[in-house]
Amino acid sequence: RSCSFTGFSTVQSRKLAKSLSRSSVRSRMSLKSPKAYNSLQKGAVIWDPKPLQVKKIFEALKKGLNEYLEAHQAELDYLSGRHKDTKRNSRLAFYYDLDKQIRSVERYIRKLEFHISKVEELYEAYCIQCRLRDGATNMKHAFSLSPSTKASRESLVELYKNFQECTEDMCLIEGALEVHLGEFHLKMKGLVGFARLCPGDQYEVFVRLGRQKWRLKGKIETDDSQTWDEEEKIFIPNLHEKFEIKVTELRGLATILVGVVMCDSINFFTTKPQAIIVDITELGTIKLQLEVLW
Q1: Structure pTM?
Q2: How confident is the model at residue 149 (pLDDT cuts 50, 70, 90)?
Q3: Based on the domain organization, do 149 and 258 belong to the same domain?
């Protein structure tokens, strides 16, 4: 590998290093300041891109957006069919009402199509920067195996700058993608524990996603029903973080940890509400049931 790279001229290596810099995402698309994005705010800057995680989120997001697009296209087809029938029957009031509904659905479809194209554009730019970053890494490795000269040292400095710039651009694009992830609406459905849950027991559930937190308390009533002081919370999806769910039992002034689990959000990007049941204890004797709507 070292011998094959030695034959690569210094001029060529410099040209390639400069081309990496010219291909930067900064010259191809306008990106906002890092402070505009959820995971790039002060105190939470992430300079460690995670291409595999981004790929999984992108594929789940695109699939969910296409599901919404198909559902609204089906609604549009149905309304258009009724629109034609109504026009023949001359029911003007109903006809104009349908016309308004059709235009509203058409506008929403155009927004979805733009949303999908924007997500695809961002991910394409991300992949380009990822390949450029990998190329800079491979070239740095090859230069390190070749004899050190002034020209090779200069090329290494240039490659390091390109690597840093690609890394920064990837993080900026990750932040831009987060803006397009929508919202997760979580609903508390209660604990499931069979014999483990007794009337009078009190529990606290703590849900965290990055810096977003939801703390709620509940009580098991005498008829085995459950009352919670809060039932719904909105979370903004995050590329890098998973849901952390912690359940504790409240006994007077003491608290007893029931369990802590991590929950990935990839399966939440869908049009239908998702019923999520997670095992809080290792044996599954206590479970937490949530409903997630994206």
Answers
A1: 0.77
A2: confident
A3: no
